[in-house]
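Lesson 9: reading folded outputs for more than one chain in a single document. The general rule is that every protein is listed as its sequence immediately followed by its C-alpha cells, and records are never interleaved. Here is the first one.
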Amino acid sequence: MHTVDFIIDFSSSTGIYSYGKAAASRGVKIISAISHYQKEDIAFLKKLAKETTVFWSPNITLGVNFLLLASKSLKKIAPYVDIEVVEEHFKQKQGVSGTAVKIAEALELKSSKINSIRAGGIVGKHEIIFGFPYQTVRLVHESISREAFGTGVLFAAHNLINKGKGYYNYEDILSPYFNSTGKM
C-alpha cells in the first residue's frame, strides 16, 4: 500500500506525462493546476481518470471559480447581454490567461471578447462585465497573494479525498454547496 493520496501539479502542460500513468496505476489522485492544456493533454487526463481521481482547473483559486459559477448563472438569466472579460496579470506573463479562456468558453464568448492588461506585479485579476441597457454588472476576482492557489488546492483535495475514479473540475465540487432550489 502506498502512502501518497495526491499528486498536485503546478508544473507545465508536459508534466502530466512524466508521472500520470504511474500515479493512475497506483490509485494516486491527481490535482492539476495547469492553465494551458491542449486538447490532447485533456484527453490524456480523461484517460487517466478511468483508473483514478483526476481534477483539473486552469485556475485553482476558490474565488475565481465562484466568479465562474456566478457569471454562468447571470448569463442564464440574461442570455443576450453584452459580455466582456478583462484579465490583468504581471508584466512578464505571456499570452491570454488560461482562466480568461476558460471564462470565455463557459460563457460561449469569442476570444475577441477577452481584453488583456500586463503591468507591474499584478498576481491575477479577472473581471466579467455584463452590459445591460442603462446599467452594468461587474463580477471581479483578484488574487492578492499566490497563497490563494495553495488554499484552493487544499479545498479541492478535501472535497476529492473520498471521490472515486473520474474526471472532476471545480464546478463538480462546488455545485453541491449551492442551493439548487434557487431560493435566497
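And here is the second record, again sequence then C-alpha cells.
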Amino acid sequence: MAGILENMGYIKTDDKLNSDLIILNTCCVRENPENKVFGNLGALKSIKKKRPEVLIAVCGCMMQEKGMAETIKTKFPFVDLIFGTYNLHRLPELIENASNSKKTFIEVWEKEGEIVEGIPVHHKSDIKAFVTIMHGCNNFCSYCIVPYTRGRERSRKPEEIVKEITGLAKQGYKEVTLLGQNVNSYGKDLGNTSFADLIRMINDIDGIERIRFMTSHPKDLTDDLIMAIKECPKACEHIHLPVQSGSTKIL
C-alpha cells in the first residue's frame, strides 16, 4: 500500500492534523486489534470536523467480515472510503472515487481474484526485503478467521517472484523474507513448482545472501523442503512454526 501511495505522490507523515489522507489498515486475527479500530476511528472524528477536506479510509482484513463495512459506515459516517483485502491494486481509483463521492464509498469484494503483479512495493530497509509469494490459506483451523478474510491459497508464479528478487538484488538487497499465510504450501495450486523448488531458484540469484520465510504449517513441512534448506547455503536454518501448530486439539 505504501508503494502505491508513494507512486501517486503521497509522502508519509505521522502528523494526522495536517495529513491529506489517513488510512487505517485493520487486522481481525485477534480481538484486541479489532477493538482498537473503533477507538482509533473515534479519535479521527475531531480531525475530520476541523478539516473536512482530509480523506479518511479504512481497509484490511476486518473489512472482509460480514456486515463490518456497513457497521463502520453507520457508526462513523465521516469515513470517506472503505475497502477490503482483494482490491488493493485499485487504490488510486478508490481514492479518486471517494474524493468525488458525497457519502461513504464502499468497495469490498467478497471473493478473491487473480494475483495482480507489478504493484509498487515500499521497503523500510535498504538491505532486507519482504517478498509476498502467495495469498490466502486453506487450513481452516478452528480458532482462525484468516481463510474467511484473506481467501483461499493463491500462489504467485515462480518466474514473477524470481524477477522481483533479481531486481531487489540489483538494487543492493542482500536478504529476502518470503511471506504468506502458509508459505510451505506454496505452489500446490500451480501444480509444477513446490516451495522447495522456489527456495532452490532463489538460492541461484546472484547478490542474494540470505533467504528466510514465514509463516509455516507442520503438515506442509516436507522432506524435500528440509533437504532444500540443507542444500541451499543461502537458506537460513530457521523455521517459523506458530506454537499452536503443535496442538492437534487446537487446530
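What the second record shows: The helical segments are 2-7, 31-50, 68-75, 91-99, 146-150, 158-170, 195-203, 223-231.
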